[in-house]
Amino acid sequence: MIELPEYKLVLSLSGFREVIVESPKQLLLTLRKALGSIPLQILDATFIAGTNHALFATLNALNAFKHGNNLSSHIEVEVLLYLSAQRQISKAIELIGVKTHTHRIVVIFLASNREEAQQQEYILQQSLSGQRDDSIINIDEDKYSHLIQAFNISPLQMQATTKHGLEALEALIIEKSAMLAVSK
Predict the structure, then answer these.
(1) How far is CA 57 from the centre of its chain?
(2) How far apart are CA 183 and CA 40, in angstroms?
(3) What SS3 class is residue 164?
(4) Considering the entire predicted model, what is its pTM?
(5) What does the domain layout of the chain look like in residue ranges?
(6) Which end of the chain is more exposed for a tag (fewer CB within 10 A), N or C?
(7) DSSP state of 18
């Protein structure tokens, strides 16, 4: 959980492995029904480049709403757009959305306080098949090539950053996500 004091919200990121997804749409509806009216998004963990990627995408989405620059009418969709660095919802879902073959997912939601977030995380664990494993949020060698391809990161971009390896990739993806705000 990450507190966002400027917005009086708490960001929750939960990773799950060995999840069985028969229908992504049904899974999202089931989770929304279980968790109530909180903003919620489910994503393929393969395309989440770490906690900072999710944090900065969420902050950019919240800022877009605060300043009236949002592309969508729902904060959870805006988070999806920033996480994917896409302007179109269909492309964002295609890129980082959960599919029937997805077995590692990340659930992101916003709660009004820490206690609500803890309660919702408990309900989330009860509502999902699979095992809780927040380590799948982080970049690892298995995700590396998928992220490079999905976010169209060139070798030249990787060389141009002062960071190396996984840190460089995370920084470049966060930068691409942030560019969505500039390109509106």
Answers:
(1) 7
(2) 25
(3) coil
(4) 0.86
(5) 2-182
(6) C
(7) S
Tell me which amino acid residue 90 is. Answer: S
Nearest Cα neighbor of 138 from 68, 53, 65 is: 53
Whole-angstrom distance, CA of residue 99 vs CA of residue 165: 28
- The per-residue pLDDT for 38 is 87
Distance CA 98, CA 138 (A): 17
Residue 90 to residue 72: CA distance in whole angstroms: 12
Quote the radius of gyration of the chain (alpha carbons, Å).
16
Rounded Cα gap, residues 23 and 139, in angstroms: 26
Which residues are 152's β-sheet partners?
Answer: none
The residue count of the chain comes to 184
Asked if 85 and 179 touch (Cβ cutoff 8 Å), the reply is yes
Which CATH code fits 2-182?
3.30.2380.10
Nearest to 75 by CA among 54, 87, 60: 60
Our measurement of the distance from residue 183's CA atom to the centroid of its chain's CA atoms, rounded to an integer in Å, reads 20
Q: DSSP secondary structure string, 34-47?
A: HHTTS-EEEEEGGG
User: Would you state the structure tokens that stand for residue 156, as one six-digit string?
Assistant: 């030249």
